[in-house]
Please model this.
Amino acid sequence: MIMSIAVKIDGFISQSSLIRRMFEEGIELKKQFGPQNVFDFSLGNPDVPPPQIFQDELRRLVEEEMDGKHAYMPNAGYPATRQAIAGYLSGIHGNEILLDQLVMTCGAGGALNVIFKTLLDPGDEVVVPSPCFVEYAFYVDNAGGIVKYVASKDDFSLDLQAIEDGITQKTKAILINSPNNPTGKVYDAASIANLAGILVRKSRQFGRSIYLISDEPYSDIVYDGIQVPSIFKAYPNSIIASSYSKTLSLAGERIGYIAANPAIEDEKQLMAGLILCNRMLGFVNAPALMQRVVARLQGVKVDVAVYKRKRDLLCEGLANAGYDIVKPEGAFYLFPKTPIPDDVAFAETLKKYRVLTVPGSGFVGPGHIRIAYCVDDEKIINAMEGFEKAMKEFK
Model:
């Protein structure tokens, strides 16, 4: 019998099944053994509550009387919200960003879909360093593009030679994610500067602009004094996609933005395209109430020290258990090597001890597992016995 859904979507379901399967199996295990006896590190769902000032502003806005509070707005978003974000970003990036260079979006995922819809012609390639977020390929495909993965170095830093070798006449953009999901790596300023140099040379060689797109929803979740370097300072044809999902722990509110470099080529045409695609993809505009809230919370973020404590607790425990780890510099993920090449099999071994992780194959990083440590400290501590027992099976 002929399948009812698209063949391509059926294939995509298989590609994304590792994450979905671990989540669904976690639900069943919690029913069987009780939530306190299952150690679920499968989802990157922030567990640090939003700052109290968010709660205060939200309550005040809900109660405030105003005309058109929930009405349609300009598709790019409220001018006051874009102005507030532009002013904040100008201070971070050291150049003047105007509200006309901002589009409010339904999260960073919505932002990336809008960007690719605007930039890509069918068959255009987007080079993506791996490991990476699995849904990037789906976003690019939504716009008719093709993802071209290039492996990162063993410490998850950018392999600039591999990126340069991966750029062809068909390359339209490089997509980076810093801090990275699933590795927690922050790409340093030297790497970004050298990457920019490559893009300048390759753009000239092929006679077409190659864009640098940075997915930065974790940019405020960084540790040990590390800062996320500005791609705007490094390269003119650059675009940032970001959100408040992690900065303010608002993942379910779907509020984010696109920011274009003020020096980007054909700025007015680009912004017109982004605004049109925001509408034609069905997002129309970002959530009204959340736009009004975040406009008043620029520079506010969750208590990052809480995530740092969890990171250190997890890294120390796993290192003592014999795991090969690269300490994350940001985000809330750890991506240790598995003691056997088959990461899916090792994740299944962990599951015997009711420890749920996601095989690295789901992030184009085989031979690893992703551990999302945005969970309570007790879960990390109580899971260590299971992590140790699983490792001992292969030692």
Notes: The two ends are 48 Å apart (CA to CA). Residues 351 and 357 are 8 Å apart (CA to CA).
